[in-house]
Design brief:
The protein is mainly α. The protein has helices at 3-10, 14-26, 31-43, 47-59, 67-79, 83-95, 103-114, 120-126. The termini are far apart.
Length: 130
Amino acid sequence: MSLLKKLFFLSPSPEACFQLAFEAETKNSNYGKAAKLYEKAAKKGLAKAQFYCGYMYIKGRGVKRDYEKAFSLVREAALQNHPQAQYLLAQMYYSGEGIEKNTALGDEWIAKYKEHNLPEGRLILSFHNF
């Protein structure tokens, strides 16, 4: 049993759930398991888990595609100052996926994202095609 799994069974912290979800998604392509674990960590308020879980709902990876649920999760992460969630939330406002299209709110979230001084190109390549 891996150290990660031992930690999870000893203390199912949001971070342990997130790490197991990330492993299930990236190493094993087990999207159903990943989505469940991301959601478990997201419900406990872990911003990066909210972001990843929301992204899985956008893509329909391991869960049924649900833009409204994705918006809710991504928004929660963005409100916690998660930069990628802020960027993705802006894109959702621009496109109108899961919410009413609102370019003014999209601009506000892009401005918050830019406060982190992260390059947009890196983010776009990291999260495939939205």
